Amino acid sequence: MIVVLLILKIIGIVLLSLLGLLILALLAALLVPVRYRIDGEVKESLELQVRLRVSWLLHLLSFRADYREGGLKQSLRLLGIPLRLKREPETSQTEGKKKKKRKRKAAGRKKKEGVSGPGESEKKAASGPGGQKAQAIPEEILPERATTLDMPQAERAADDGRAAEDGRVTEGGRTTEQEREADQRPAARQAGEKPDREAFRKRQGLLWKFKELLRKIRAFPGMIKAKWETLKEKVRDVRGLVERIRREWQEEANRSALKLLWREIRALLTHVLPRNIKVEAVFSTGEPDTTGQALGAISMIPAVYRYQVHLVPDFESEEFYFRGTFDIRGHVRGIHGVILLYHLIKDKNIRSIIQRYRNS
Asked: What is the mean pLDDT of the chain?
């Protein structure tokens, strides 16, 4: 009996510890804020650099994102250990490294082929058919033999050239007049056939275009009628939607539900929006009058006075530019979202609206 009670005691302790850890994790998720920070820099060439930092529970879980002209870099860490996100796009540096590696491999292959290639070709040239070595010809005899072999061909080419210049005989052994007659016969036949074919094709093309035009003219009234019917249906649907919204808005329950929803969203935004904003900037529009007008328009924004925004106008510059830095910080707690959902579900008007849309 004592052993059973001891086992039950151990099981109870384990279950209570697990329940305590679960409650602790839930309270941490609801009460510990998720802090975010957005800072960056704007250069005179309007080049933007932005850094995003999001952390939770003393950087137990953190997310970073850096945006530059080269692209976007992201990293997610759990207990300082990076977790793999989706594959990042290859930058220009990585592409250049890969191209260099490919060129090196191709150069290595060419070198290997160059070392082994000439030796094999010399062996093949040295060996005759059947693998037997061919007899070497002395270099002194080669030029004489080449000249003796080429002499009759040169003389024959010169005779043919003289005959062609005189207009007597061509390369095929026929006179130039015979060749002209042979060339003119098929040309005359083709000249007689081409106009007939072209005229027939033109007639066929004109007939097809005329039939297509008639078909479009006949189908035009039906097309206009179909479009008019679709337009009438769309207008009817829009009018029905507007009438339904007007009817829903006239009900007192719906109006009170919308007012409550808007009030809760505004309360949530006060907790979510940044608490601290710092801006340091220098700008110029290129002309003193427009620079002053821009400064006056910016001064009318209430956020400029609520946060630490310092704008310095440059009235002497003759070019448009803007440069500066910004730092935005804030935090979000999950408990605020839970409170919003509780207030919405507690309201009977919102519950009736949800029930009505479920039944419909």
From this structure: 77
Domain final residue pick, 57, 81, 111: 111
Q: Coil, helix or strand for 67?
A: strand
Residue 337 CA: distances (Å) to CA of 26, 29, 175, 268, 271: 14, 12, 104, 7, 10
Note whether residue 77 is domain-resident.
Answer: yes
Question: Quick one: which of 52, 91, 87 has its CA closest to 71?
Answer: 91
Q: Which of 145, 147, 150, 171 is CA-nearest to residue 159?
A: 171
Domain with 47, as residue range(s), is 34-111
Select from 111, 128, 150 the last residue of a domain: 111
Please tell me what DSSP assigns to residue 166: H
DSSP 232-287: HHHHHHHHHHHHHHHHHHHSHHHHHHHHHHHHHHHHHHHHHS-SEEEEEEEEEESS
pLDDT at 25: 92
Give me the number of domains the chain comprises.
2
Q: Is residue 315 helix, strand or coil? A: coil
- Examine residue 268 and state whether it is found in any structural domain, yes or no: yes
Residue 134 clears pLDDT 80, i.e. is over it: no
pTM for the structure as a whole: 0.55
